[in-house]
Amino acid sequence: MPPDQVSVKQVRHIGLFGATGVGVGAIVGGGILALAGVAFATTGPSAILAFALNGVIGLLTALSFAEMASKFPESGGTYTFSRKVLSVESAFTVGWVVWFASIVAAVLYALGFAHFGMIFLQNVAALAGLEWAWLDQPALVPGLAIVTTILLAISLMVKTGGGGNAANVGKVAVFAVVIVGGLWAVTRQSGGDTSAAFRPFFSSGVSGLIQAMGYSFIALQGFDLIAAVGGEVKKPEKTIPRAMILSLVIALMIYMPLLSVMVAVGTSEGQSIASAAAEDPEGIVAVAARHFLGPIGYWLVIVAAVLSMFTALQANLFAASRIALAMSRDRTLPTVISRLSKGKNIPTVSVIVTSSLVCVLVLALPDVSAAGAASSLIFLVTFAIAHWLSVLVRQRSEASPPPFLSPWYPAVPIVGGLACIGLAIFQGIAVPQAGLIAVIWLSLGGLLFLTLFARSARLRDVSSVASNPELSRLRGNTPLVLVPIANPENADAMIALAETLVPAAVGRVLLQSIVVAPPDWNPQENPEPTDRIHAVQRELIHASVRQGVRAETLTTVAASPMEEIARVARLHRCESVLLGLSEIAEEGVATPIEGLLSRLDTDVVVLRAPKNWHLVERQRILVPVAGRGGHDYLLTRLLGSLARKQNCDVKFLRVVPTNTSAADLKRVKKELDRLAYDNFGGRCEREVLLHDDAIAAVVERADESGLIILGVQRIGPRQKLFGRFTRQIAGQTKCPVIVISRRG
């Protein structure tokens, strides 16, 4: 498959109901069934307060997530937010651990579904008087978990929605029945008995309350998964914030009354909820329901547990596959993962990879509880990162703020972020293995990134920034391009190209004029250099106005122009230097610019163009290559910038001898496809030309183009030359030429 056909645009098909269903599916049920017992055993009835406080923290975090998701309505969640605001390495780190956390969460829910499913079957067999001894086989739980994961993966590959809406409605209805039954039981109990059940409210003091918060916060995790599938949500600016808040509110509307009735009427006379939970933390919800509703209450909780684990597994599989999809599109994971199915545009490969990892971990994880704690720790850290990123985005995008702005800024991200960090620290101390697992996964990811993905991911990142300059501002960068101009006739073309490289909205264009004069120059005795520079400055200002570029100007006095350019570039820490050149000298004749190239530690773009040449709306660009060059990052940036400003028809050309074997020709074509994909996303022509005179072949193709891009030749650590190839091309064609030199 050609690189430009790896992926196509996804369709937005998820409405408010479906998006809310993703959050409800992940939040409601599984967490409270697994963690209510631990919370009650730790702090007694004040576990209700612990869940409520966690709900407040969750709402604060959801507000920051909603703001970020409205600004960046794409799939990937926290990874996507990080990619927009942080470096590609930091974004990979966030994406890598969030993907892992979602996969581990899916593992836990798969095993939870299988566990409660077996309990359900065992109870059915007991009621029917059947002796199904095979239900006691230990291998059935992981086996059922894997089968369920595979079936859910298949369902996610054949339909476009996250699914699970019927199961969501079913489990919410079951919980509602349990809550109503509990409230009915409370009304039949004396007020004194009810109040006594809540005493002592803090069985372990404030420290116990904080511990319970740390243990149970993850029960509210799941709203973030809505952001992870944001690229498929309709009207995301409005839908995602509403769905996040709604899913959390629905969860809290179930959790608070359920926990309350468990305390009030869920235990035997004389027994506290703390002691009951300590005896059976995993089954406390079912035990409590059986106490006030009889056997039917127990059955209702088991059914709710099965449905809850199922929907949570489905939601995490759905979201984790979209995180992998987003990372693959940015080339921080293999690009094959970003392939979408024809017709429905479903990321089938991503679903297969994610579900396969879930199945492997079901069998491979020696300590599932520690892995779950690691997942909780990672989510808390990434929630804190999301709060921090929301502050950065609010500060750096004043010109285009997010459509949804969270209220009470900056209190929301500050309080929410500190709370998440505090709970993460608690989790790391309470379960040291969680931190160890997170470190091991991070180390593995770092190794894979550096060995397999780094170059391609960084090139993709450079292209993204060039195509969307707002990313520079979001990352806190204000790039500066230095444009020394001595010949005003080229001012229009130079300024236009400079603004293409660094748009005024995110960076600065500095036009440099140099008064070339000896060290003992006396302006009063020899005013000619001053008069000349005044004329140059006047033309530069006029050209800036014509181009609509608010360029800055700098005039300096120096005996050596090239040394002065290098000095100013270092002093102002320029990202790039744009130079103009009338002609490139013949081979064997050194040029001052070549000496300058070796002194500059910035990216350098040299333009040789006819008088009054302009960047046109439709540009045919030829890029001759001879393999992997050393200027890929600058070439990617230049092509991305040009494509942003105009409709570019780019052709990558590789010339090989006519006696090249078929095997070598196939290899060269594959290399050219990969190079074109890395540098321009594959949206271009690629031609491998059989010709024994590479220069003549390139000149022939250059005459058909409006611009040709070449690279300088490196002959040493600090020496760069135009090279014979560049000189010959420039000498034999009148086509405008850009010669690029990557920093370093």
TrEMBL record:
Entries under Pfam families matching the protein: AA_permease (PF00324), Usp (PF00582)
Gene Ontology annotations of biological process type: transmembrane transport
InterPro entries: AA-permease/SLC12A_dom, APC_superfamily, UspA
TM region positions: 16-41, 47-70, 91-119, 139-157, 169-186, 206-231, 243-265, 296-325, 346-365, 371-393, 405-429, 435-454
Keywords on record: Membrane, Transmembrane, Transmembrane helix
Gene Ontology, cellular component aspect: membrane
Localisation per UniProt entry: Membrane
Domain Amino acid permease/ SLC12A: 23-434
Keyword presence, Transmembrane helix: yes
UniProt entry tagged with the keyword Hydrolase: no
Name of the molecule in the record: Serine/threonine exchanger SteT
Organism of provenance: Rubripirellula reticaptiva
